[in-house]
Amino acid sequence: MKVFRVALCIAVIGFISILFSCQKSKEVNENIRVESKRIKINPHNIKALYHRGNGYLHKENYKKAIKDFSKAIELDPEMVCAHLARGYAYLVIEEYEKALSDLNLVYNSAKDDPVLFAVFTCRGYVYKKIGNYNKAIEEYRRAFKIDPQYVEIDIKKALAKALEKLEEDFSK
Q1: What confidence score (pLDDT) does residue 156 get?
Q2: Neighbours of 71 (CB within 10 A)
């Protein structure tokens, strides 16, 4: 059952990201309105909460997205895709500890490449932002093993920053 949920979440995340990348703001607003109606009818509608959260994520309204993802997680704590999406939203608003908490939960729940790739790249970014360049490099390397082309630039940036930091420390 858990494997099915993970596979379903991956499909939903992929579909939603493709859908939203092609949508205009007006269409996203309409989707949010529709999901809001579904939630008004049934406040425990996990799918509607998740989809509306993704709409808010697309509109860069991260606080509202986090609120919807959190409610979906409250209703279904094993909803991996909601944890992943909320972790990303926390990352964007620079709440790094909360982002890592969600991303680590996803890592412990999912074992397939697309989800792990997202976890590794997001965690790499968080570690880079908080100055833990060794951990950032480690995460980017893990992502690199899954998809070498996508991560190469971030790995180079993290390596350059780590070397710069080491040189600073060494010259003191």
Answers
A1: 62
A2: 19
